[in-house]
TrEMBL record:
Organism in which the protein naturally occurs: Actinomadura namibiensis
Signal recorded as keyword: yes
Membrane-spanning segments: 335-357, 369-391, 411-432, 444-463
Protein name as annotated: Peptidase S9 prolyl oligopeptidase catalytic domain-containing protein
GO biological processes: proteolysis
Signal peptide: 1-23
Stored PANTHER family: ESTERASE ESTD
Superkingdom of the source species: Bacteria
Keywords, in A-Z order: Hydrolase, Membrane, Signal, Transmembrane, Transmembrane helix
Ranges where the Peptidase S9 prolyl oligopeptidase catalytic domain occurs: 115-275
Record-linked InterPro entries: AB_hydrolase_Est10, AB_hydrolase_fold, Pept_S9_AS, Peptidase_S9_cat
A GO MF label: serine-type endopeptidase activity
């Protein structure tokens, strides 16, 4: 992969979407009452050794098993899925949970392919455990794991079934844009900050290449899945669009000839199918009532040959639709944005710096108030928009500030600044035609070029 120039890399550090969890130290999970716990290790992608725990009821009778694949974050410890593992095991399944890799998984780099290889290593290990029927072992994936688990299943016939929880059949970038827009809407924000500012900011991160797996082809993967699939969503999911994803899953599976899927939805359940007391903002300790029973019963059925046939009831409603986020066209992509950024930094800074240098030398140019205003407002609009959008990324939608007619006050001030820049551009053009001396024409001409580019740039980012 070609590396972006240094400036793009620096931009990407600021453009990347919410940080994944820090690497956490995993460790053995003690056996809860009525269950056995067996510590295991296995080889994941690249020869990496991963460690986990198998929880199951006592006894040697062969039983179905499931490997749990967690959501985003480097080094997520197996304890994170302990509640699910215990509840599934108490209903008769053998469950393997493991510490997620941190090697090769960073803020800016992750590979669903590598994570799928890790999951298949766990499947091989669980299939070899005493008391587990190797023909009845499947994978379960939560959130990011909802992209990983189907990919693992598409690669191996050893996987008997697939379960996705809060899963997406859309690209990670499209899902993340919806997630961020939802946070802003819950804060009362409306208008161009959501529709253009944040939307295009996220797309630029994907273009630069440091929004990992931004355009992962989830539907292409699902079309290659031949195993029965259970999809489960909570109606209070604030991270994954619960209304749009089930039809996308069904369409992709049918395209590959697979009609053996079941979709279910749970009231007052969050992204991970835990009960939530406040509409999804807070996760409760307990799983949604009936969820663990559904998983255990569905696994028993499909591993006994009783396959579902396109069982997909109407999904719950979501507050607002997603927006398709394809890779940017050439005129809006990383190179166009880099060109605009360099032009603005050079042109808007050159005008006042040149004036300062002349003053230091004792030479005075012709005062041009419009040009000075254009340089100041253009620079403020460009830098201000960039850093404000960055603050929203780091604050995850909580740094909006006071609202004025559904727009954060900082965004309103940036929009006013952009309008002033346009007015100053017109004034500078009129002044150029009448009275700009020959010696001023180079720096004023460069300023006019930057101002002319600033207008469509500001429209694109929602400042105009």
């Amino acid at each position: 992969m070609r590396k972006a120039p240094t400036l793009l890399a620096l931009l990407a550090l600021l453009l990347f979407l919410p940080l994944p969890a820090r690497a956490g130290g995993g460790g053995p999970v003690p056996a809860p009452p009525g269950l056995t716990a067996t510590e295991v290790s296995f080889t994941g992608h690249g020869g990496l050794t991963l460690r986990g725990t198998v929880l199951k009821p006592p006894g040697t009778a062969p039983r179905a098993g499931v490997v749990l694949v967690t959501g985003s974050g480097a080094g997520v410890p197996r304890e994170h899925l302990r509640t699910e593992a215990v509840e599934f095991a108490r209903r008769g399944l053998a469950v393997l949970i493991y510490d997620k890799r941190s090697a090769g998984y960073t803020l800016f780099r992750r590979s669903y392919s590598e994570l799928a290889d890790d999951a298949l290593g766990a499947v091989r290990t669980l299939r070899a455990q005493p008391g587990v029927d190797p023909a009845r072992v499947g994978v379960w994936g939560l959130s990011e794991g909802g992209w990983v688990a189907p990919l693992a299943a598409s690669r191996s016939r050893d996987v008997a079934f697939v379960i996705v929880v809060g899963g997406n059949a859309m690209t990670p970038l499209r899902q993340q844009i919806w997630n961020e827009a939802s946070e802003l809407r819950r804060a009362g924000v409306r208008g161009s900050l959501i529709d253009r500012g944040k939307h295009n900011f996220a797309r630029l991160a994907g273009d630069i290449g440091l929004f990992a797996e931004a355009h992962h082809d989830a539907q292409g993967v699902l079309a290659r899945v031949r195993q029965p699939l259970l999809g489960v969503w909570g109606d209070r999911d604030l991270l994954t669009p619960p209304q749009e994803n089930p039809p996308l899953f069904a369409r992709a599976l049918r395209r590959g000839g697979n009609t053996h899927y079941t979709f279910r939805y749970f009231r007052d359940a969050d992204h991970g199918l835990h009960q939530t007391p406040d509409g999804g903002r807070t996760r409760g300790e307990a799983l949604a009532p009936g969820y663990a029973d559904l998983v255990a019963g569905w696994v028993r059925d499909v591993t006994s040959g009783r396959l579902p046939n396109a069982d997909a009831p109407t999904p719950p409603r979501q507050d607002h639709p997603t927006v398709v986020a394809p890779p940017s066209a050439w005129w809006e992509g990383k190179w166009a944005q880099l060109f605009a950024a360099v032009l603005f930094l050079v042109a808007f800074a050159a005008y006042p710096l040149t004036a300062l240098a002349r003053r230091v030398r004792g030479r005075r140019g012709v005062a041009n108030g419009w040009a000075r205003t254009l340089a100041a407002t253009g620079a403020a609009g460009f830098l201000g928009a960039f850093f404000y959008l960055f603050s929203l990324v780091m604050g995850k939608g909580t740094a909006t500030g006071p609202l004025l007619f559904g727009r954060p006050l900082p965004w309103v001030l940036l929009q006013v600044t952009a309008v002033l820049a346009v007015v100053a551009l017109v004034g500078t053009v009129l002044r150029w035609r009448r009275e700009v001396p020959r010696g001023e024409r180079v720096r004023v001409g460069l300023l006019l070029v930057a101002g002319a580019v600033f207008v469509p740039w500001a429209f694109y980012w929602g400042l105009l």
